[in-house]
Automatic annotation (TrEMBL), chains A, B:
Keyword Zinc-finger: no
Protein known as: Aldehyde dehydrogenase (NADP(+))
Natural source organism: Saccharothrix yanglingensis
Gene3D superfamilies xrefs: Aldehyde Dehydrogenase, Chain A, domain 1, Aldehyde Dehydrogenase, Chain A, domain 2
Residues covered by region (Disordered): 1-45
Pfam families: Aldedh (PF00171)
InterPro entries in the record: Ald_DH/histidinol_DH, Ald_DH_C, Ald_DH_N, Aldehyde_DH_dom, Aldehyde_DH_Superfamily, ALDH_KGSADH
Membrane-crossing segments per the record: none
Keyword Translocase: no
Ranges of biased composition (kind: Polar residues): 1-16
Domain Aldehyde dehydrogenase: 25-461
PANTHER family to which the protein is assigned, alphabetical: ALDEHYDE DEHYDROGENASE-RELATED, SUCCINATE-SEMIALDEHYDE DEHYDROGENASE, MITOCHONDRIAL
Amino acid sequence: MTEARTTQDVQDTQDVPETRRARGVQGYNPRTGEPSGPPIPESGDTDVDRVVTAAAAAFPTWSALPARDRADALESVADALDAGSEALVTLADTETALGRPRLTTELKRTTNQLRLFAEVLREGSWVEATLDTANPDIIPPRPVLRRMLRPLGPVGVFAASNFPFAFSIAGGDTASALAAGCPVVVKAHPSHPGTSEATARIVESALPPGVFGVVHGQQAGVALVNHPAVKAVGFTGSTAGGRALFDLASSRPEPIPFYGELGSINPAVVLPRAAAARPEGFAAEFAGSLTLGVGQFCTNPGLLFAPESLVPALAAAVSGAVGGPMLNERMCDAYRSGTEDLAASGLAELVAHGTAPAEGWSVEPKLYEVPLAGFAENLATLTEEHFGPAAVVVTYSSVDELLDVLPKLPGTLTGAVHAAEAELDDAGRVAEALRPVVGRLIFNGWPTGVAVAWGMHHGGPWPSTTNALHTSVGATSIRRWVGPVTYQSWPDELLPAELRDGNPLGIPRRVDGVLAVH
Amino acid sequence: MTEARTTQDVQDTQDVPETRRARGVQGYNPRTGEPSGPPIPESGDTDVDRVVTAAAAAFPTWSALPARDRADALESVADALDAGSEALVTLADTETALGRPRLTTELKRTTNQLRLFAEVLREGSWVEATLDTANPDIIPPRPVLRRMLRPLGPVGVFAASNFPFAFSIAGGDTASALAAGCPVVVKAHPSHPGTSEATARIVESALPPGVFGVVHGQQAGVALVNHPAVKAVGFTGSTAGGRALFDLASSRPEPIPFYGELGSINPAVVLPRAAAARPEGFAAEFAGSLTLGVGQFCTNPGLLFAPESLVPALAAAVSGAVGGPMLNERMCDAYRSGTEDLAASGLAELVAHGTAPAEGWSVEPKLYEVPLAGFAENLATLTEEHFGPAAVVVTYSSVDELLDVLPKLPGTLTGAVHAAEAELDDAGRVAEALRPVVGRLIFNGWPTGVAVAWGMHHGGPWPSTTNALHTSVGATSIRRWVGPVTYQSWPDELLPAELRDGNPLGIPRRVDGVLAVH
């Protein structure tokens, strides 16, 4: 997601005016623009140091727990959150205006995510246990080697605005890092401070002391990234904020990995026959994906390549769509000014806008149009993300011309191709053109709705993330928090259980290069 | 390895004086200090651009080759290098003075490494093929997902001075990146430019055009890291040079992963009974590891924690050891001045020095001694690496006191523990104290001699590397060059073979979370 584009923009708290910040982090009701709940005190440097120091103190014990015990602990957290669902959803709806049905589902997704990582821990292959026997006859000679992955240390997590549960206090970064054996300190998002505190209290109470902590405020985020005991950071937020924190993490005396999930334009290509087959149905689905959650998704489809003939149906669908209140005032302002600037630039034509409820920080859905040639000439400007329910439809007449332009798109989390049965060859060519710039390729579907699964990849080339090797959703997101250790010629009784003779844990292991499932 | 410590030190070419650099990169014979062979022209920015552009052009075809065909190509490279062994070893011995036996073995290790990656490609689990079936009943619903790893794009590799074959033109970084499907551009090391050119001609001739290229000169290295088409960089060299290049890579408009294998102090702990059991034998093994290859290894044991009673044997062994010529003049000067400064500092006492042949850039082995308390007080200074055959022995009287100090050591590639049968409990405690700061734990052995295997980890926490998640040696080093892509609801006929129904390649895959070996 992209909320801001200034490089001084380290994090999202600057939407809290300076005068209010002295009082703490204040939540607001997006439906009214009025304060919601008491302000939460900002964490000073000493607060951050206290929480991180507690996390560092908890690391040896938490990381040494048998993985199955950590699995039990994750399930306890999930159970406690499920038990608190009613109150959490009520609080979150007041602070985010995302609606009770969506928030109830999101919290369930969040607890299912914790349970997926319990499953990952019990399955055991996440440690990549690898055993080599000795071979003195090769060059160089090989001693007995046993390798596995171990947690890095305390992890900092920056919560997102747009998922107050699933990418926040107990979200995917937290779940995967706790699963790995890393204590977690979350920098709460200022758009839902009350929800963050309530969630944090539940998570803390379900875990050993120090294993989980929370801090509030922009300066606390900077202190968290700079703290020597923090060994990796996960972040979901704006490109500008993520880049600034990535730069901080990379320029520390001891640089640490920074996993930022940033802005994404999520191109979709509809091929001619698919467009012609059912224009109204397709347009309705597009508008549905575009306006879901007031367009406040990393996976919002902001760019659609379509035949000119589809534009009337798309315009009709967007005209009929209803917007809603955005998560905070700054996002609302950025959406309004960004989309107005786009119209004023003349680089794309506003062809439709929907309506918005007359309340708080509400915005209208918008659709812009530009022909492929004009898009290619102004690609950088026209691929800027306008976080919210706005999209640009790029009209094309030749798939070949499209193939020249698609590889020039900025890195993005997803790319979708819509094709009829008879145009699978072209779908394959479009996919090959898109693949180098996307993390997930979707066929005849929409990018919103990110499944939490072993096979999910929620990541992509810069600027969609700061590290194209990793995902922030799905089972393999645990790998961000672990590094290898190899034991050479080590006595069996001193080895971790995962590497001992006889495979006492019964986990999948690789022995002399051969993967074996117990 | 650490060769230099100034931050302006982007790469190792500054050991070529400015006046000579205009003529190109000149190799020298370390046994005489005289030029060896003709100078190799430095690559200008346009040369770098041409080579990288050719690599980018080769990427789609090379990455799309079936992995088994890339395996065949790697074996062709290995065969061609083996066939050229005689000439390559002769040239390398002139430029490095490492000796024909070592260099013959090193080249064989290099070609075995290429063959290991052919094996990795044929085995197939390196792509982590992951298939999820649809499940509409969970929250969030799961579509059909198929995930695998794909190569990132052209890779830049910085060759090391101390392994003219195994960590150079056709070394581990090159082999693993080529295996992954990434074309490679190597920045040759200036200490063996002739060997680099001769090796590069052989590698190039065995591969399709553009898949492999080489550049020479410090400025070429900077241009390589900054080139927009380069998507990741591998580096083996000094901490200062590696940090400078890491900073470049991280501050690009599009930051890219930089995998630097840097300095390492490689602590070894000998417990009292192991020390008492056979002091002379132990000391001889220590001196052998310390002086192997004139101490020019990343894994050289630069720090030994031992009972005071062992020092006479250690001193005797080092006194009897013979040094040799270092790889280049700057390294030789740095070793001499660094070890002299250490003696002058009074922080540690010079207790023994060996002899050196009266030729070229030869240096003597040296052993310093400091009690544990004094070491702890000056830990930062006393853990500086003096690249070459020098070590500090830290005397201790209590294992408990040792346990307080070991976790404060800087991140390092290896840690060794020497223990008798009766002191395994203490060995376990020492290992736990060392584990957070090391990548490989060795029992009753020495760190030099890095096996190339599935279970090897050659990496570690900063400052031993810039990224503790990865290894530069062994099968899993391929992971540095690949990122995931997920295909959602994708037609089977458009999927890569690795992900198709029925597993046509017969590779290990994970289906709905369950790992299955074909």
